[in-house]
Amino acid sequence: MTTANTTEPTAPMEPTAPTHTTKNAADATHTARSGPDGTRRRLAAWRASKRVLSRATGEYRLGERLTALAADAGAVHDLEEEVDVYGDGVVEALECRVAALLGFPAAAFFPTGTMAQQVALRCWAGRTGNHAVALHPLAHPEVHERGALGLVSGLRTVHPTRAPRLPTADEVRDLEEPFGTLMLELPLREAGFLLPSWDELVEVVAAAREREAVVHIDGARLWECTAHFGRGMDEIAQLADSVYVSFYKSLGGLSGAVLAGPETLVEEARAWRHRYGGQLFQQYPAALSALLGLDRELPRLPAYVAHAGIVAGALAEGLRSAPEIGWFRIHPDPPHTHQFQVWLPYEADALSEASLRQAEQTGVTLFRRWFAPEPWGPPGVSVTEVTVASEGLEWTAEDVRAAVGDFIRFLAPVADGGGEAAG
Questions:
Q1: Cα distance between the two ends of the chain
Q2: Which residues pair with 257 in a beta bridge?
Q3: What is the pLDDT of residues 362-411, one digit of tens each?
Q4: pLDDT band at 82, cuts 50/70/90?
Q5: What is the spatial distance between Cα 331 and Cα 130, in angstroms, rounded to a whole number?
Q6: Minimal CA–CA distance to 346: which of 371, 383, 386, 381?
Q7: For 111-170, what is each residue's pLDDT tens digit?
Q8: Over the Cα atoms of the chain, what is R_g?
Q9: How far is CA 128 from CA 34, 133, 205, 211, 358, in A?
């Protein structure tokens, strides 16, 4: 953790910033708020920026994505082959490749990770005879799925810990009620893309085994964890009984996910996929983009993780040299993956507006949207997520420090109630 200059205010126990929108500002003309106009303004500024730390796939236009996919898909699959029908062809090829990467005998493609994970947990509940799933209260099913585990799948959740980190082995052992499955989100996004150490992870899995529970990994962002653990994808995945991975978060795919595990589990998962409405007629665009991500982005992720440490360090230096900031937090420090949080003692609307003005007026996007960590966070403190991808590799530490200086220049007038930054 990095702080500067003044006493650090109490950090919220559960920093769920991305799940909460910012408050509306008084002056709509100067606020990067939600809504169609705000979205269009943000996208226009981010697209026009010459320098960014990463580009989200949602920033591109339809024609750009379609053109790129058509131009590149032949490098990863035979385009003379017939299109897939209900999961054969290129979809099956993707399943086989991911199963091999993760060291499992079988895998099934799903249109969404939400569906893949619900199906996996439902299947394990049937096998263990226990419908309780132990997971973190900040895990994706608890925060982003509208209670679907209980409402749709008939499962219930228990929490080994409420601390903003993965549970420890002792917390798993000491959980006062039995559970059939331990679900581990690696990394834990809402807590700052946090990971345990390798030894801690091995101990947590062993503790679950002692409780006669199976282990499922929510690996939506597992691809970028190899550098932190110092292990290959297959060794990490093989700690668990099943793993779900996503293709659009870190690999730049269009959509889709894969559930990997034992053959009997995957066979049952395919049946539940059909019942859940996930047996799509054709999915070749998503499958082809996933194969491209595996070929092109997956090998580069360790470089992104390494450079994220440089970016985070330079951000800390730039913020520390600005006395008007007073306090800040880089979390975790150093980053565990290529993504991390930045906390500042300002309202989210002011920080979002300053970030947007910097992009519009300088062509540099350093930060994107900021959020108030309601309802747990202290007032006047906001958080943003920083992602370092291929575009960010071009940034030196000095580039980052200079961008921080510009950001602070745009923040001052906005934080004072409006107006324009000095040119």
A1: 34
A2: 110, 246
A3: 999 999 999 998 666 788 899 999 999 999 999 999 999 999 999 999 99
A4: very high
A5: 36
A6: 381
A7: 999 999 999 999 999 999 999 999 999 999 999 999 999 999 999 999 999 999 999 999
A8: 22
A9: 44, 11, 16, 12, 54
CA–CA separation, 383 vs 348, rounded Å?
8
Identify the helix (H) or strand (E) that includes residue 62. helix 62-72
Q: For residues 337 and 7, give the distance between their C-alpha atoms in angstroms, rounded to a whole number.
A: 27
User: What is the C-alpha to C-alpha distance for residues 264 and 108, in angstroms, rounded to an integer?
Assistant: 12
pLDDT at 31: 39
**Residue where the block lists tokens 């006062």:** 176
Q: How far is the C-alpha of 140 from the C-alpha of 143, rounded, in Å?
A: 5
Cβ atoms of 1 and 333 within 8 Å: the answer is yes
What is the C-alpha to C-alpha distance for residues 301 and 198, in angstroms, rounded to an integer?
19
- Residue 378 and residue 10 in contact, taking contact as beta carbons nearer than 8 Å: yes
Both tokens assigned to 255: 């959509």
Q: Which two tokens stand for residue 89?
A: 């062809």
Contact partners, residue 396, CB within 8 Å, separation at least 6: none
Q: Are 266 and 252 in contact (CB under 8 A)?
A: no
Judge if pTM exceeds 0.85: yes
Q: Name the H helices within 183-262.
A: 198-210, 226-229, 233-237
Mean pLDDT of 103-117: 98
Looking at residue 40, its amino acid is R
Whole-angstrom distance, CA of residue 82 vs CA of residue 318:
54
